Every structure is written in structure tokens, then in C-alpha cells.
Amino acid sequence: RISLFVTTESTENAKGTYAATQDGPEAVYWLDKGYGCAVVGSLPRERLNEVARNAYTQLVNGLAS
After folding, report:
1. What is the pLDDT of residues 54-64, one digit of tens each?
2. Tell me, what DSSP letter sits at residue 65?
């Protein structure tokens, strides 16, 4: 199972991509364009990174339309 979390962030200038693991699922999270996003799941980090890139692309494309 994979979960995607998206929230607005008050700092639009904050940017970055991060990864974390702590005795459980992997997490990839990032801040960009006023949003904070996280993808969490029991997949290898490389696969979660791919899911995160796809989610980010869809988010940015949705903002542009």
C-alpha cells in the first residue's frame, strides 16, 4: 500500500526532497511551490522516488491548468 499526503505550506520559497525510514515504511517527502507532499509505503526507496516524481508531475500539471 502507498499513501500520498499533500498539504499547503506557508513558506513558498522552501524547497527540498527528503527520504526517511524508521523501523517501518519508507517515506519520500518534499516541499515546493507552496506545497508539502509525502509518499509513504512499503516499497524500496527507488520505487517510492519514482512514485513521488510522478505525483509531483501530476500536481504541477494540475496547478498549471
Report:
1. 988 898 888 78
2. -
Of 14, 8, 19, the closest CA to residue 52 belongs to: 19
pTM: 0.73
DSSP 10: S
Q: Domain spans of the chain?
A: 2-64
SS3 category, 62: helix
**Residue 4 amino acid letter:** L
Residue 26 CB neighbour total at 10 angstroms = 20
pLDDT tens digits for 9-31? 776 666 666 666 777 788 888 88
Which residue in this structure is represented by grid cell 507552496? 34
CB 44 within 8 A of CB 65: no
CA distance linking residue 21 with residue 54, whole number of Å: 21
